[in-house]
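Sequence in, structure out. Go.
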Amino acid sequence: MIGDERQDRSDETLDPQDWTELRAQGHRMLDDMLDYLAHLRERPVWQAMPATARARFHDDLPHEPADLEAVYRDFQELILPYSAGNAHPGFMGWVQGGGNAAGMLAEMLAATVNSNCGGRDHAALEVERQIGVWARQMVGFPDTASGIFVTGASMANFIALIVARTATLGVESRRTGIAASGKSLTAYVSAAAHGCVRQAMELAGFGSDALRMIPTDAGQRIRVDALADAVAADKRAGHTPFLVVGNAGTVDIGAIDDLDGLAGFAKEARLWFHVDGALGALAVLSPALKPRFSGIERADSIAFDFHKFGQVPYDAGFILVRDSEVHRAAFASPASYLRREARGLAGGSPWPCDFGPDLSRGFRALKTWFTIKVHGGDRLGAEIERLCALAVSLKSRVEAEPRLELLAPVALNIVCFRYRGPDPDRLNADIVAELQERGIVAPSTTTVDGKLAIRACLVNHRIRQCDIDTLIDGVLAVGAELAGVSDAVE
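Output:
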């Protein structure tokens, strides 16, 4: 009997028996999501997930199938209302883009073809290679450069570190390890760098003690003179300096290092020069902003994210390396099951898995390709420029309001300020939490020169001047309310 049942089910798949019904449900879902994007302003930026909704995610593993419509109702009730909110124009908290409708539709198409972009010869890899060409053109890299998609700049920075290590110690270090070289390698980054650089040093086996945190100037830019002193001191102590990381937009205030000065120093000192451009590198698409990044074209590698200023739906990080041969030497791992052929599906070498640690890779390139093709590089650059102009407008409003205090210079698209009042650190933390919980606007906090700051990071292309006004009005109203000021704004 069991054998007969198995025989009867041998031709079953997970495809629906009724494609017409699925088509109708799919159209409803698509229409709902387009309506969701079209009416974002009518929704709270964020709202806390109630305990009753959280409890629904504690169910046991389902063993029986459920109707797609019922599962979609669960999505509408339990997931959609409690998203992080970064698609909303009131989201200004962290360095997260807002996505775009064309990219959303492309994600559906990518899921349909379900490509594994680790390798072999198929169209998805040509799309990724096309993005690599465009990325080289954006930053002024030569045709010898290579690039691949990764989850985000944290992974891109890690890959750059591995490439720099291999370039310094030679490809044999992949087999023998760092210790066999007998060298004590040291790397350098500003004290304002993102924590993922430190983590990369730890994951790569160097240890965070081998990372030198270089002081910054008043604008949070790395001091090249202090860098030179640190490198010289390490050489005298018998260490081997091998890497310097420049910031194309620091995470706290958006500061841009002297990339040209760093490039010149790195070349003279024979260091690998990597640029962490997670926040700001794509601002080179704006002719007005591009001069601020002078020297980025001289880097040995650059990490950046299309899902931030590029507005591509998550995730779409990218690593670009000037010398593709050095890049490939750090990761290529021939194996019988990855045999390359001159013809057939196993052709198309080199493959993306030769340039990074992932063999199983999604089709991230398609939503990026759609976004760039539909909107164009000039329009994307104009949006970045507009967001930076809004940051200047926000800065002006802060400076014009006696109850507010600007805490850092505005280098790009981030404004750090606070409400003046008793116990200002606690007060401003509470202001931010209240604004988020009331669904009005969602800035974040950071610390600048020992002071807790309200941090407004303008990355979402949907942000307008009215949203800047909502932020300021909200901070003033909630600040007055929490500080007990009698003229609190309702």
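Check: The chain has three domains: 16-45+47-82, 107-376, 378-483. Residues 486-490 have pLDDT under 50 and may be disordered.
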